[in-house]
Write a structure and sequence with these properties.
With 296 residues, the chain is mainly alpha-helical. Helices cover 77% and strands 0% of the residues. The protein has helices spanning 2-31, 36-59, 69-92, 95-102, 105-115, 123-140, 153-171, 177-193, 196-199, 206-232, 235-242, 244-257, 263-287. α6 runs antiparallel to α13 (263-287). It is globular. The two termini are 14 Å apart.
């Protein structure tokens, strides 16, 4: 029972990473033809409509009750900021390199725990954080010909995503995943609706409409799958498998944009993945976690 719960959580997390990689690739494609805030609105409007259509007919307004409305709204705002950073980054960066930089988020959470939450962090953990930072430098290569200012944008995403992941992990233990989807979708939709009249441009062809639809489907499915995964297994168990997103992103970049990272960038990606996975393994060893599904 315990093993099956952890295994299903891992499978859901890997599926979520495939959804997120597809979301990033379709975002890059659509963002080349339409304003990014318009694309963001479509992504959140789809999630809001899908979660509402799923909740209200079957469970009524009672399913929207939450014990933490402020945290639900904050989580929605953090997710929106994460999307804004992601959309602007992907306009200027290959999908694989962008994803690799974003994957330092678990290491950023370690830094957050030490500096803000005042938790004790071991020397080995600091070494892994340093290793992840070194891998990021290999991908970005400040001062080199491959470096561009847009490579700094994913670092803003990492900061927002770190707080978003902390909130998601905490709320997922007591809140319904569908309820969480509802609030995050509508917070993003309502905020971006303010800007929509200023940026609206008709999509130029059917492929862009398809990319917008795919963004909505993949964003909604990915976050729902990841939220459910957090209920099946501890975050420390899932984290090593989240790095599968780098592989999916490289595949998407190759198939859609004919981009293959150079050897230095690949070395940085591997370094980030290894340090992040080692950090997750260290969490399990230090806390002696017994893998089991969370209470539903």
């Amino acid at each position: 029972m315990r093993v099956s719960g952890a295994a299903s959580g891992i499978a859901l997390a890997v599926l979520a990473t495939a959804c997120f990689a597809t979301l990033d690739s379709s975002t890059k494609y659509a963002g080349a033809s339409i304003p990014l805030f318009m694309a963001i609105w479509f992504r959140y409007a789809f999630q809001a409509a899908a979660s509402t259509a799923l909740i209200l007919p079957t469970r009524g307004f009672a399913a929207l009750r939450t014990a933490h409305p402020r945290f639900q709204c904050l989580r929605g705002l953090l997710l929106l900021l994460t999307s804004v950073f992601a959309f602007f980054s992907l306009r200027h960066m290959p999908v694989g390199e962008f994803t690799a930089i974003v994957m330092v988020t678990p290491l950023a959470i370690t830094l957050l725990a030490a500096t803000v939450l005042k938790e004790r962090v071991s020397g080995l953990r600091w070494a892994l954080v340093a290793g992840g930072f070194a891998g990021t430098l290999l991908v970005m290569r400040p001062g080199g010909q491959a470096f561009q200012w847009a490579m700094l944008l994913p670092l803003g995403l990492v900061a927002c995503n770190a707080w978003f992941q902390v909130l998601t992990s905490r709320l997922a233990q007591t809140e319904d995943p569908i309820t969480m989807q509802f609030y995050s979708g509508w917070v993003g939709t309502l905020i971006t609706s303010v800007f929509l009249p200023l940026v609206w441009t008709p999509p130029p062809h059917a492929a862009v409409w398809g990319a917008l639809l795919l963004m909505g489907v993949m964003g909604t499915a990915g976050h729902l799958l990841l939220t459910i995964a957090y209920r099946r297994a501890p975050a420390s168990t899932l984290m090593p498998f989240v790095y599968a997103q780098i592989g999916f992103a490289m595949l998407g970049g190759w198939l859609l944009f004919d981009h293959v990272p150079d050897a230095t960038a690949v070395a940085g990606m591997v370094t980030i993945a290894l340090c992040g996975a080692a950090g997750a393994w260290l969490t399990v060893r230090e806390s002696r976690i017994v893998v089991q599904p969370a209470e539903s």
